[in-house]
From TrEMBL:
This is Indolethylamine N-methyltransferase. GO terms for cellular component: cytosol. Pfam families: NNMT_PNMT_TEMT. The lineage of its organism: Eukaryota, Metazoa, Chordata, Craniata, Vertebrata. It comes from Galemys pyrenaicus (Iberian desman). Belongs to the class I-like SAM-binding methyltransferase superfamily. NNMT/PNMT/TEMT family. SUPFAM superfamilies: S-adenosyl-L-methionine-dependent methyltransferases. NCBIfam families: GntF_guanitoxin. One of its GO terms (biological process) is methylation. S-adenosyl-L-methionine binds at residues 34, 39, 83, 99, 104, 156-157. GO terms for molecular function: amine N-methyltransferase activity; N-methyltransferase activity. Keywords: Methyltransferase, S-adenosyl-L-methionine, Transferase.
Length: 277
């Protein structure tokens, strides 16, 4: 009976465990579980599909009609995903993908190299191609992106220089979606991380970011991970304090499924570094 009670206590303890950044993220985050939970585009996960579409549509707008483009884009916290780079692939000469964990970069590499078992992104790619005017060109879009991603780098946004020891030229755009909320333990750390990302930009360069608002946690498989609680106003102020001008902040009340994440709304921000910054 004592052994059974100890087993129950241990199980309950595991169920309630909240994994946080750093070592927890490195050891416990499973990219395949993450992809299955949030990016199964045709699986009937309505809330997750709506947020993915929100991102794809806002990214398309930023990298086409809003004219965000140039030589180099650095994606901070790419994770195992490529959807955020699809529209960008037509606007930049090179893309540097970065992440904190080796397993995420390895999953990304599988797709880039078309290895067996690589995640199938074709539904998202077709959605972007439809916005561009020809859904049938999705294979060309995938080939374009594979050609444009020239570097896979480790990053740590809690450091003053998030890409050290790698040397990178000043970027025309820094992109970061749904990454800082997981990596930053406090609002002060979030502000500092944005200052670090602004430091990667050349004068006149753009920051493009999407944030899940009022988030407390998110699930990856059966594991619960920490997420920083942020209000829309906090995000805008932090971007401005990093020396950037907010050009657009698009809010939507859409949220993830209750079983996936605890959050209220999302916002998408396009900002620009001043010419003399």
């Amino acid at each position: 009976m004592q052994e059974l009670a100890e087993a129950v206590d241990s199980s309950a303890s595991m169920e309630g465990k909240l994994y946080e950044g750093g070592e927890d993220y490195q050891k416990e985050f499973d990219p395949k579980d993450y992809l299955k939970t949030y990016y199964a585009f045709d699986s009937g996960t309505v809330a997750e599909n709506e947020i993915l579409k929100f991102n794809l549509e806002n990214l398309f707008q930023a990298f086409t009609s809003e004219g965000v483009g140039g030589d180099i884009l650095i994606d901070i916290g790419t994770g195992p995903t490529i959807y955020q780079l699809l529209s960008a692939s037509g606007a930049f000469r090179e893309i540097f993908a970065t992440d904190y964990t080796e397993q995420n970069l390895r999953e990304l590499e599988r797709w880039l190299k078309k290895e067996p078992g690589a995640y199938d992104w074709s539904p998202a790619v077709q959605y972007v191609c439809e916005m561009e005017g020809d859904r049938s060109k999705w294979q060309e879009k995938e080939a374009q992106l594979r050609e444009k991603v020239t570097r896979l780098l480790r990053c740590d946004v809690t450091r003053l220089h998030p890409l050290q020891p790698a040397q990178v030229p000043p970027a025309d755009c820094v992109l970061t979606l749904l990454a800082l909320e997981s990596a930053c333990p406090t609002v002060d750390a979030y502000r500092a991380a944005l200052r670090g990302l602004a430091g990667l930009l050349k004068p006149g360069g753009h920051l493009v970011t999407m944030v899940a608002l009022r988030c407390q946690s998110y699930m990856v498989g059966a594991k619960k991970f920490f997420a920083l609680y942020l209000e829309k106003e906090t995000v805008e102020k932090a971007v401005q304090e990093a020396g950037l001008q907010v050009l657009r902040c698009t809010y939507s009340p859409i949220s993830y499924s209750d079983t996936c994440s605890v959050n209220e709304g999302v916002c998408f921000v396009v900002a620009r570094k001043g010419p003399g910054a």
